[in-house]
Amino acid sequence: MKQKSIGAFFGGAGTKAGAKQEAVKDAKPAKPESKPKTKPEPADPASDQDNEADAASRPARKRLRRAVIEDDDDAALAVASKPAAAETAAPQQPTAAESELEDKDATMTDAPAATTKGAAAAPTAAAGTPAKSAAPAEEPKADGGGPGTASKPAAPIASIFQRPAVRKAAAAAAAGGSPAPGNAKKSGGGAGAAASPLKASASPAKAGKGAAPAGAATSTRDAAGGEEGKAAAAAASPASKKDKTKARAPKVEKAGEDGEEGEEAEGSEADPISDSDDDAGGDVNELLPEGAVGGGSGKKAKAKKAAGRIKSGKGAQMEGVGTGALAAASKYKEQDISAVISWKEGQPVPYSLLANTFEAIAGTTKRLEIVALLVSAFRAILATNPPDLLPAVYLCVNRVAPAHTGIELGIGEATLIKAMCEATGKNEASIKKSYEEHGDLGVVVVGARSTQRTMFAPPPLTIASVLKAFQNIAQTTGTKSGDQKRGMIVKLLVAAKGNEPGYIVRSLQAKLRIGLAEQSVLVALSHAVHLHRGGPAALKQPDVKLAEALEAGAQVVKQAYSECPSYDVLVPALLEHGSTDLLSRCHFMPGVPVKPMLAKATNGVGEVLEKFTDIEFTVEYKYDGERAQVHVLDGGKTVHIFSRNAENNTPKYPDIVSRIKGLLKPEVDSIVFDAEAVAYDPEKKKILPFQVLSTRARKDVAVDDIKVQVVLFAFDCLYLNGQSLLHKPLTERRAALYGSLTEKEGELLYASYKTSRDVEELESFLNESVEAGTEGLIVKTLGDTYEPSKRSSHWLKLKKDYMEGVGDTFDVVPVGAFFGKGKRTGVFGAYLLAVYDPDTETYQTISKLGTGFSEEQLSQLAEAMRPHTIPQPRHYYTWDESLVPDVWFDAAVVWEVKAADLSISPRHKAALGLVDPTKGISIRFPRLIRVRDDKSPEDATSAAQVADMFRNQAVIRQQKAQDNQAGDEGEDE
Fold first, then answer.
1. Contact between 767 and 802 (Cβ < 8 Å)
2. Bias regions of kind Basic residues — which residues (predicted)?
3. Whether residue 622 lies in the annotated active site
């Protein structure tokens, strides 16, 4: 199959500067790619000028390249600083050095550079530079190319701007020109309104703000490999082909209340999906090596626009549902999959395809766009080498095997730094210094690799080879395993090109950091397989019919994965049979845990009776422990215990494992039951708080060393003797549970329950549950099925907290911290908390937490959070300018907090637009209850839950007011 440019597929806006390119390797000017024979086009005088300038610039490029190789900043500075004076004297006649800078610009703007003949498409590793503006900007050519780029070679020294001295010279060279196309900063800032865009930002606050002044450089997510990424975002839009011949006008946003940005100005909806031009501006820090790997830093403009879409009702729809499916159907008809394929059919798919896709995903928060980017990559894989789809999916979800197998990467920083030193030739001090500056080893390794000379280029990495290497690394054990792992990592990094090493390092850390949720991967997988199996006929269907098929298929795939969460089973079955018969082939089985069914919050007994007026229900104690899904096979010979996140907790509970066989009734051969593991005092026969359970060791626990005893409270049966009970009503599942296990004090008990519709009885039972040390009650409908991984309205939480005005505690993610003062100097004095919005895949701030801590707690929390610090916020964070913390954190930890109440907030962004059209919701006077090690950040309280809890709070207050009024009237009588 003929090699084709990734940039050609991604709307023609990407650069191919990284193809077959080493950072300091001499390269001859590349010939433009051959194009299909069409009508001859008129000669382009700009291209001729560029060719002349390119020839004149070769000596300067060689001198500059030599200076970089020899680590001579002064020499590099002398070469790079010439354009500034030359431009002033004769702006129409670029000097050789200026042409070099202009060549460099071409590799980091929307124009794709031609590649060396025969080179496979690969991402560039360069950080972005300001677009040169002495000459008037030209409109893109009809083929998607930028001004004069068809005749320009890929700049082999693009990463030169990662060197401080040359960055400074480049800033001087770029200053004074007309602004580059893109978004202007909200506060104004036209041409020349700001200082050099290459000057490092002084604070995270500035880094987190919106688009930089006009004339600023491309953002981190759009540089180095990121230009491919930015182009990919453009290609995801149906407008990407239609608008190739004209430049898109920048979007303008109206100022909203309290400094918030309002809806996008009228007319900005020309491209409802693509956000490719939103980052044409950028913060000054975005020219540092963060640009080498997408998602390395965040921009508030992106997050605020996401909030604006919610406010105006333009928020991203759930993929495969309604308008989302229609938009997807239209988008897929615009994709040209053949253009992305640069390898022959049957050959292994290059890893660069995924690296480019990750780069593009890092540049958007639009869920539909993210799915479209994944669909394009998956379709390219299916069209050429379908077996590579499974490894591609694993790399997208940042795993190497099903979660329940316990095979994980999570390579430590020390090992990675040593491997990076070996692979790049840098010393450890240099790597560590760069890491301190950027806070992201992925960024550091790309910057280091981009300046490394290699004698012989290793063969390109493939998707399958990368996953295989990851699996080998994860499963290597023994006394010399550290050295063996490091050796395998070095091989990967040496073979990686462009931005590939950045994503390899992030994957090894199990922190991809691009804001890609697993649900989006599942939807993209479903859509891609449907389009592949349907062939051209599928895309010829009317949008509505195609949307219906996409919607139905996505729902089936998500349900199949919820019941059988193993891609090893799901992907082959989907490829062979499609979604039609998928549920019969991907079903629940012992040994593969399902994610648990979850309950929604409620505001009291009255609401329960109102919702379940004509429905039978029961209420059970809600125990304060750790969810345990117990899988028993072969009559108790094999026992597995899984957490709510499908982690294998069997080594943590050897005492439970040893008991199970004796608790099974004779007729039971296999069973899976849902339970809560709770700390227990056997002498007092009393359950203990969760904090006691959390002191228990997590791995390799010996029975003789156990100090915290645990009892299992079983409450549901999911599987029995070869039959799945997920689709059976609770009445049958409960009967199966009681008929299979034998209760034993201190070891296994059934959850206490009551079935009644009497208000007084239910309230009395709630009080009893609180006195017994539980969190409250769970209300369950008796006639409904078990719904894995779903927070269902068939289960309602009735917790003791509702009596205090708030229906539930909150699971929040700390995304930032403020330095302490006075006695708190040296530690974090307060934290910025956020909730998760799965619809937009963003973290939205909800409160600051700074009271109720002891000195010891503050010290412990600071120590625990320091490894998660990052230099700038992620692009999928949503916050207000008045709440910029001193330190930003990765979304990595979940805290459970309790609050006095909820209130409408002009500063916090949680549930923005769901209750108030222009304001979010905050929680008042939060206090930390515990750290939730059993939850991932995506399991945090959702924006929709926050909105529901706010409404429930209003109902509670109204009920209390009515009760008080009735009491007063009774006294008057």
1. no
2. 299-309
3. yes
Q: At residue 291, does pLDDT exceed 80? A: no
Cβ-based neighbour number of residue 283 at 10 Å: 30
Return the axis-axis angle of helices 351-361 and 226-235, rounded to nearest 10°.
70
Query: CA-to-CA distance for 338 and 348, rounded, in angstroms?
Result: 16
Do 67 and 145 belong to one domain? yes
Amino acid at 657: V
Q: Both 82 and 190 in a single domain?
A: yes
Structural domain contains residue 58: yes
Q: What is the mean pLDDT of residues 160-189?
A: 37
Given a contact cutoff of 8 angstroms between Cβ atoms, the answer to whether 423 and 494 are in contact is yes
Beta partners for residue 687, in sequence order: 680
Look up the CATH number of the domain holding residue 559.
1.10.3260.10
Within a domain: residue 316?
Answer: no
Q: How many domains does the chain have?
A: 5
390/409 same-domain check: no
pLDDT at 35 over 80: no
pLDDT per residue as tens digits for the range 922-943: 998 898 988 998 888 989 999 9
* Secondary structure E strands in 436-594: none
Average pLDDT of span 382-401: 97
3-state secondary structure 4-65: CCHHHHCCCCCCCCCCCCCCCCCCCCCCCCCCCCCCCCCCCHHHHHHHHHHHHHHHHHHHHH
Q: Which distant-in-sequence residues (6+ apart) come within 8 Å of 209 by Cβ?
A: 185, 283, 299, 300, 301, 881
If asked whether residues 848 and 864 sit together in one domain, one would say: yes
User: Is 305 inside a domain boundary?
Assistant: no
- Set 16, 302, 366, 622: catalytic member: 622
If residue 714 lies in a helix (H) or strand (E), which one and from where to where? strand 710-720
First CA to last CA across the chain, in angstroms? 91
739-757: per-residue pLDDT in tens?
999 999 999 999 999 998 8
Strand bridging mode 671-681 / 710-720: antiparallel
Same domain, 574 and 607: no
